[in-house]
Amino acid sequence: MLTPTQQVGLILQHLKTRILDIYTPEQRAGIEKSEDWQQFSRRMDTHFHKLMNELDSVYGNNEALLPMLEMLLAQVWQSYSQRSASLKNIDIERENNPDWILSNKQVGGVCYVDLFAGDLKGLKDKIPYFQELGLTYLHLMPLFKCPEGKSDGGYAVSSYRDVNPALGTIDDLREVIAALHEAGISAVVDFIFNHTSNEHEWAQRCAAGDPLFDNFYYIFPDRRMPDQYDRTLREIFPDQHPGGFSQLEDGRWVWTTFNSFQWDLNYSNPWVFRAMAGEMLFLANLGVDILRMDAVAFIWKQMGTSCENLPQAHALIRAFNAVMRIAAPAVFFQSEAIVHPDQVVQYIGQEECQIGYNPLQMALLWNTLATREVNLLHQALTYRHNLPEHTAWVNYVRSHDDIGWTFADEDAAYLGISGYDHRQFLNRFFVNRFDGSFARGVPFQYNPNTGDCRVSGTSAALAGLAQNDPHAVSRIKLLYSIALSTGGLPLIYLGDEVGTPNDDGWVQDSNKSDDSRWAHRPRYNEALYAQRNDPSTAAGQIYQGLRHMIAVRKSNPRFDGGRLVTFNTNNKHIIGYIRNNALLAFGNFSEYPQTVTAHTLQAMPFKAHDLIGGKTVSLNQDLTLQPYQVMWLEIA
Prior knowledge:
The chain contains 22 helices and 25 strands. By secondary structure, it is α/β, with parallel strands linked by helices. Strand 18 (565-566) and strand 19 (574-579) form a beta hairpin.
């Protein structure tokens, strides 16, 4: 009897044969001798068993699995054989250096193409600016064809192979990616694979009863099944629709986790996996370096569960990863999972998503600004920061999305904090409903049944710049100093680096007025960017401060990698941590001077060089940090 490994080996040999069967004997002989086939075959030998095991764990009892796998791998071979020589060279480089993304030289930025540059041609013209700032990674927010009007900021995709016509064409995108590569900047786009728009061809054909797209989505004739699922589902956008389903004009119901125009794909149908893998391979051959895996927690549904973070979701992502290791190993995955911290980290691994958003650190940065106490942040850095080898956090201060208070209740309780009460405080503080607040955020998706709410706002609005708070600039620089120095890939939401305020015009736009996140998605502000080199302006102070920290980071290997060790400052207002046994970072989250005592510093060398201030400081005496001051001290 064959062992499971031998069985998988036989399946692999059969599938390789089937891939080559479409060619004439002469063509086949030439292909088998080609460098492309040798490389492809080697990667199949390495990664096929992972792909087979993951798909078998999800679809093992589905008779469509092997026919689907046969068509999938033929598609993978076609994709690889058509991949450009330059991209194949990057494949080899990154196979040999999987830690490229952990380099201290990596710095990221994110923007909407239309809001930052008008269109793709305009974005190409901004590349010199991206180089000036020091970016090596650029996330272009969803830019594919989507419904006119409301489209959840582009996250309702109508075609993964067509750019939104207002931005340009797919050839324009290909040109922009090539130009970014020429400038040393990796291209990042969203892989929105939990759902499509209701206008996508698959959705239209599924709703019409086309047998080729049968069960591509969850469509029910009445409320019986939706009602059963809704008993255990979390409402994501309660303002848009209660529960997880929306009614179609013909009376049927479709699964819509987020918005009525975003239909959830049915991954229990293995042909959906094959279809989405094809879209993924198309993006890879455009030259995309990183795919931001959107809404990873939601892709598998199971009655009686929350339909979030299920084992099959992880298996499917690992299967997509295995496909990519064979067809385009230069392409990395970035997870987007705004869930419990224990679950966030489960998506990050070499065989799943090599990098992932760090929503806990982001939320706790703002928490620490509001409370002036570093307890929750210190706890998170101590127990939840370090990741497996060859993986990294994407550390950000804010994103296109709202801020949700994603700390674990049990972590808060350990420190004597009521999670529910504390979230209520933070919501009030950041929307200026708390006496003495410096923030001017906007509430998002208030749920009167649960009291749950999230917060919208640019960094400038939330840090106090909107009302000219004297500490606002220092607060923004402090937050970004943490993102730049804690290890992993720092990410700047473009506009923050010059203190762009909220866009108050969102309420006048009927396509945006029910979504306050548009408040913190402002357009490129010509006046503020013109001030970026003027140190007498807030824009200039923020920009020059960030540029200086970026330059320090990129020139100093002490920031390399992703791990840290926390340092107890014995001062509830000052965060401290050590990187690579060589750099001691301090940040004062108070509007008053704060001290780290000589006794606390007694294990440190007598003197250290502050990379930010450029001065030598004594560590054999009390060390005082000014309000919101940051120090990066070389200790080895």
